[in-house]
Design goal:
single chain, mainly alpha, 6 helices
């Protein structure tokens, strides 16, 4: 009995992998260019967008809610603080923690850049996908993400 090994190049997931990565890079290129035109880096925008309409967050919460890595977050916050957009204030109940919140200037920046960027990105999605397809795509991407995050037993 001979076992015929399948060509690894014929794996069905490979037909998804390249378009997924190419889509990510195409999105990132448009996203980064537009955010930079608003005077921010992607990480700075992520922090401002996350802090907008909140009373602030701890660094741990901010790290969990953004795509900014813990190692990068301090530098991003330092630069945003230097621009007068965020401030660090002592936590009311936990003296070990610090709350990061937008300053009035940061709130103003959030009100300017968040809707501007959302409405810049929106047509790229709407040209390609219906609302139902966006929901399906989101569900599929979350399922795939969970598969990568799941520990092998």
């Amino acid at each position: 009995m001979s076992s015929v090994q399948k060509d690894p190049g014929d794996e069905p997931f490979l037909k998804v992998l390249r378009p997924l990565v190419e889509t990510y890079f195409a999105f990132l290129s448009k996203d980064d260019r537009h955010v930079r035109s608003l005077g921010l880096t992607l990480s700075q925008f992520d922090v401002i967008a996350t802090l907008g309409d909140t009373g602030g967050m701890t660094c741990k919460q901010l790290s969990d809610e953004t795509l900014v890595t813990k190692g990068t977050l301090t530098g991003v916050l330092d630069r945003l603080e230097g621009k007068g957009l965020v401030e660090r204030v002592p936590h009311q109940e936990d003296r070990r923690a610090t709350i990061i919140r937008l300053t009035p200037k940061g709130e103003k920046k959030f009100r300017e850049v968040f809707p501007t960027h959302i409405y810049y990105i929106k047509p790229f999605f709407e040209r390609a996908l219906t609302a139902a397809e966006m929901k399906t795509l989101r569900d599929l991407l979350l399922r795939l993400k969970e598969s990568f995050e799941r520990e092998e037993k």
